[in-house]
Amino acid sequence: MKLIASFMAVGSILFSGFVISQQVTTPEMMLRSFSDVELQTINDGRRVRRVNAATVSLIRVEWPEGTTATPHNHAYELVLSVVEGRLRAISGNQEFIMEAGDIAVVPAWVEHGYVALEDSITLEAAGPG
Questions:
Q1: Looking at the domain that runs over 29-126, which CATH code has it been given?
Q2: Tens digit of each residue's pLDDT (9 = 90 or more) over 26-66
Q3: DSSP string spanning 58-127?
Q4: Residue extents of the structural domains in the chain
Q5: Which residue among 12, 33, 39, 90 has the highest number of C-beta atoms inside a 10 angstrom radius?
């Protein structure tokens, strides 16, 4: 019994060292600029630039006046900030007029949509990356 316990202890120590020494990459900070990120134009007219990380994305959206994002939901939460312009935010029975500096926090699976009341720019933090 003592022999088995000793073997397991030594094996555990050796295995732990092996796993630690096998790290393939070291995480490091990156610097990106939205101007260097591919611009995608969505069918409804929005222009989108998206920077992805492992678990979150930062999305810059240009909304031409009158653009509508129809009500939808997704499996991750979303934080949307209006940088310039005005949007109508709609979620269930709620409706808000958002202006520069306003922030909407949308939990996962909550239906939401937007209408650009004028040319607008938003930043969205969303997961997964």
A1: 2.60.120.10
A2: 888 989 999 999 999 999 999 999 999 888 999 999 999 99
A3: EEEEEE-TT-EEEEE--SS-EEEEEEESEEEEEETTEEEEEETT-EEEE-TT--EEEEESSSEEEEEEES
A4: 29-126
A5: 90
